[in-house]
Amino acid sequence: MAGEQNRVTWSRQIEFTLAGIGCAVGLGNVWRFPYLCYRSGGGAFLLPYLLMLVVLGIPLLYMELIVGQYLRRGPVQALAKVCPLLKGVGLATVTISFIMCTYYNVIITWSLYYLFSSFQSPLPWHSCNNSWNQPNCTDHASNSSSSSYSSSTASQQFFNYKVLDRTGGVEQAGTLRWELLLLLLLAWILNYFCIFKGVKSTGKVVYFTALFPYIVLLALLINNVQLPGAMTGIRFYLVPEWEKLLSVEVWVNAAAQIFNSIGIGFGSLMAMSSYNSFNNDVLKDTLAIAVTNSATSILAGFVIFSAFGYMSHLQNVPVTDIAVDGPGLVFMVYPEAFVTMPVAPLWAILFFFMLLCLGLDSQFAMVEVMVTSLLDSFSEPLLKYLRRKELLVLVVCGVAFLLGIPHVMQCGIYVFQLMDHYTAIVSIMFLAFFEIVAICWVYGVRRLSDNLKEMTGNGPSIFFKVCWWLICPVLITIILVFSVIQFKPARYEDYVYPAWAQGIGWMIALASIIWIPLAAVHTLWVLPGTFLEKLMKSLTPFALDEKKASLFHLQSHGPTGALPEKNTIQTNL
Asked: Helix-strand-coil percent breakdown of the chain, rounded to 5?
């Protein structure tokens, strides 16, 4: 690994494992998984979810960690080496991670707002006797007789009219919410101090941020299961509606949740694995991250649905009338449950501090992708002007903070929903497809297996090879096709975005995807030879590096296209 001898590594391997768990386990485990489970018929969702974990999530995570650890590069450099024609996939993953970190930190901002608001008794969303409440507000006491939970509860109005002070739509920008702006700045300051020293500081932070949420979830679960009606919610969570298994949408939702939750295609885990020691047993990390992530989702499901059962009992409404989509599950429904709990402020403080931890370790993983990729590609000029890596991290965080300001205006929730819809749903599926094509089919399963054997002494099992060759590409293709067929324009509750806003959404989606064709054209332009020769070279790993191109040219004369001998490639890489 010439040129990489001095690359910093994790102080302890457990720090990478915890950072990977923190990256994978995030806010989506708390609200997106329970919601999809609710919408897909409760227990009927768990079977396809666990199946997709085994045949899609674990193999693809294993693949990304192998590539990152072997090449010791972030996604931009790694994908350029793996398949020069599709080097834009690496650029796209960095772009989408950066776009997501600009608005993902807004959720942390809301969590900070709720955290600070919870240091009072009664909680501010306890009743309708507040200046921000509307005439149609129903507080906890009167809501038990309400025929519809979704009317407008005190907790819903606190989120909409106190926290967000939202306008009627994205076309009504409104004014800047100064409280949220300062909290957004605080959130970015926290992010900066988590990662400004690179993996040396990140590795220390994850001991707390990755472990603390489990303490809170377990405490909440112990409290919730003792409440009346809790078993009704848990029964809804576990007892399947078997006819739902006949719906293709349920299977697609399960695969998409595994995919988005673990973070395949975002480049975060590939970037972090590039700081591993070369001989690290990456399979152990893969299993620890993937299994812990899914176990967290299932645990969060028990916590959420037991609270739903309790609320259903108190309000005398079915569980199906409580669950809502989007951030409302965290910031509207659960706060309503805290009001009914003993020592309500304490539970609220613990819960929102848990959200802060869940959000932070996922957030600084996305920021680390950008920092790692910039240093991999432009370390000399960047460090020439910025002198230290800490200043580069500061610049990245500062730019992301400025881009996040529209989210803390009165129209911020509509901007947030628009970006999340077109980034997390549209872009990521295309990136995943091209990443799998680049690594599994162009770079090849044989090369990937040889890389793993060189690092650990053992190649992958036949199960992983079959998944890489066939199962994963087919599943991703199916998900991509159904995502396109079932695609619906962005909405927020009953609000329909105007055509110009949907157009901006597509521009946001293309901001990452566009790098794939642009980089392909650039590769074909800079490589020498006729068009056919350019195309063949662009599908040859390491073709953009002259030494590696010569090395692989010698090997490619054989029919197998095998890698060079271990000692040779160790020297040249």
From this structure: 75, 0, 25
Tell me which fold the domain 13-541 belongs to. Answer: Amino acid/polyamine transporter I (1.20.1740)
The CA distance from 433 to 472, in Å, is: 9
| Count of positions (residues) in the chain | 573
Would residue 290 be called left, alpha or beta, if left means φ above 0 and alpha means ψ between -120 and 50 degrees?
alpha
Q: Are 136 and 314 in contact (CB under 8 A)?
A: no
Name the nearest CA neighbour of 461 among 286, 293, 274, 251: 286
- pLDDT computed for residue 558 by the predictor: 35
pLDDT < 70 stretches in the chain: 1-8, 11, 139-152, 196-210, 314-315, 322-328, 376-387, 424-426, 543-573
pLDDT at 401: 92
Note the pLDDT of residue 425: 66
Block residue for tokens 């004369």 = 557
Q: In this structure, what DSSP letter does residue 45 have?
A: G
Return contacts of 372-379, CB within 8 angstroms, 24+ apart: 372/74, 372/271, 372/274, 373/74, 373/75, 373/76, 373/77, 373/90, 373/94, 373/267, 373/271, 376/73, 376/74, 376/76, 376/77, 377/76, 377/77
Q: Write down the residue that tokens 């396809």 correspond to.
A: 48
CA distances from 187 to 233, 312, 364, 482 (A): 34, 34, 11, 36
Q: How far apart are CA 317 and CA 315, in angstroms?
A: 6
Alpha helical stretches, state H, 211-343? 212-224, 230-238, 248-262, 268-273, 282-315, 328, 334-338
- Per the listing, tokens 């006797």 go with 129
Return the pLDDT at 66.
92
Place of tokens 């190649």: 459
Task: Say what the alpha-carbon torsion angle 558, 564, 566, 571 is, to the nearest 10 degrees.
Answer: 170
Identify the residue whose tokens are 């941020």: 209
Distance in angstroms (rounded) separating the CA atoms of residues 442 and 436: 9
What pLDDT was estimated at residue 186? 94
**What CA–CA distances, in Å, run from 299 to 29, 52, 221, 296, 338?**
9, 18, 8, 5, 18
How do beta strands 491-492 and 495-496 pair? Answer: antiparallel
- Give the position of tokens 């009072």: 120
**Amino acid, res. 190:** L
Nearest CA among 345, 330, 346 for reference residue 26 = 330
Alpha-carbon distance 286 to 530, whole Å?
Answer: 42
The confidence score (pLDDT) of residue 543 equals 61
Q: What is the pLDDT of residue 16?
A: 80
Q: What is the pLDDT of residue 62?
A: 93
Sorted by where each begins, the domain ranges of the chain are 13-541
Q: Roughly what angle, to the nearest 10 degrees, separates helices 230-238 and 282-315?
A: 130
DSSP 82: H
What pLDDT, on the 0 to 100 scale, is given for residue 110?
92
> Inter-axis angle of helices 75-82 and 88-117, to 10 degrees?
160
Q: What is the pTM of this model?
A: 0.79
